[in-house]
Amino acid sequence: MAQLLRLDASPRRSRSHTRTLVGEFVARWSEGRPADTVIRRDLGYEPPPHLTEDWIAAAFTTPGQRTAQMRDTLAYSDRLVDELFASDVLVLGVPMYNFGVPAMLKAYIDQIVRVGRTFAFDPEAADPYTPLTSGKRAFVIVGTGDAGYEAGGPLASMNHVEPYLRTALGFIGIDEVEFVYTGNDEFGGERLQRSLERARSRVADLTPAREVVDVAD
Description:
Layout: E1 3-8, H1 17-32, E2 37-42, H2 53-59, H3 68-86, E3 89-95, H4 103-112, E4 119-121, E5 129-131, E6 137-143, H5 161-171, E7 176-182, H6 189-206
Parallel strand pairs: 1-2, 1-3, 3-6, 6-7
Antiparallel strand pairs: 4-5
């Protein structure tokens, strides 16, 4: 049994293609693995706070030296990290904004990429950074206004969503990441529908088949 963490970064509601596709991904996953649990954090509706000077001071203070106020400052970040550690699979819905990730997802990443929690730092080591997160997979569904941002596409060089997320997640130890793209939101019509269908086909390929139990009497 595994735990799936759903992260939605779109502030849109019913008009969000990433929310729709992530919902379909989770539904198919749950159908194929009914014993798994699903938890959800809606970054689009409840954006994480941005980092502050107090947060940085607290995060870079040795845990045993932190004041009660520092611990309070890091409490939200600690909840996010604990939630991440408790999950085996991450599913992210990510609209592309101006070629990068939305600010609310960037704020989330800033809260979970933490020295001493999700990565270790030893300035004397040959490789000073050690990931502290392991055994997790991530699936990222990206929605774009145009199309062709995936690898090999005509707009791939303008895609700063995938390289950033691969780098940030890989830095803390999540390096098994699959991307699904849906585009043409700005064009709509048949172009959008074809893109959504391709994304749905990819989602079907990535989600587990329904378990069939053969019971003999």
